[in-house]
Amino acid sequence: MTQTTKARSLARLLAAPLTAIGLACAALAHAAGTVGTTFPAGFPAIEDASLARPVIGFGGAGPVSRVPVIFLHGNNDTPFPTACNPVYGHIQRLAQYLADNGYSPSELWALGYQGDRCDVNGDQTFRSRISHSNQANVPDLRRFVREVLKYTGAKQVDIVGHSLGVTLAREWMRQDLAYPVVRRFVAIDGPNHGIISCSPDPANYFQLPGQGAFMPSSEVCQELGSPDTPFLRLLNGPGGLFEALPLSTLVIRNGDASFVYMPVQDGLIPPVPAIDSYGKPTDFSQSPKLKGARDLVLTGQGAFDPLLRTGHLGILNSPAAWQATLEFLSGRGHR
Length: 335
Hints:
Blueprint: H1 3-14, H2 20-26, E1 56-58, E2 69-72, H3 91-100, E3 108-112, H4 118-122, H5 134-152, E4 157-162, H6 164-176, E5 182-188, H7 219-224, H8 230-236, E6 248-254, E7 294-298, H9 311-314, H10 319-329
Parallel strand pairs: 2-3, 2-4, 4-5, 5-6, 6-7
Antiparallel strand pairs: 1-3
């Protein structure tokens, strides 16, 4: 099978129709103990800095006894299932797990910093363009954290990020020196040292427009296409000095397959060469690691991705990752 044929097959999978499960999840309301799909009354509308329309997400009204948790999804995802992203949006399921284990919906907040994903379904090249970059979305996160603190009366937040949500949180903390505002940070399979899908190699089918146009010149690849991009050199510091965040951090990552980092088959997604955006052979398999953080390595996570069977997407929907997140935020096993 050629790379083009593989890419076309993958495109058909990504264009799967709406599912009853996805629609049911999207319809969740703010019942007691239930994580919804909207912000509560009185929470201000925040305009997405790159999309020029209000951000989506969820949160709840009511008393707050725990440190509020802010959830950040990954690139090309949403905080809950939407009409244009019916199968994923697993951030909501992770939040619901916390709600089922003692958290109130008023303590669980999510920011959808890339809209409802309808733009991506109309033009796959948005996956790698400026509106999906870290830098473009820091202003959204900055305003969101400020408003959550104001609305809840809390002094700190915890952050749980998946994939791009990890580097987005880190870049906001770096820009604003906001480390004292974050008590604990859960970094799930994040691109802290780059992604494998940005190389100029002809076998990198992610360069194709229908697969996201992840070319070295794209804005996302300029940030994450190599451990040596200016963005990651600044974020990580000389010798990784700034990887060791001055707050309690848990990394949860894949140890066997993750199509964003490893040159191996990940579910239905074929591998691409381990070459960075500068054309240099590069091992991205350890990209999610952060110095000084507690490190949890999971395997077999593709079982929890309902469509593509990938470890990178499945790990966010994994009971093991959910339990580790709950235990860490509750103060068990943090450094």
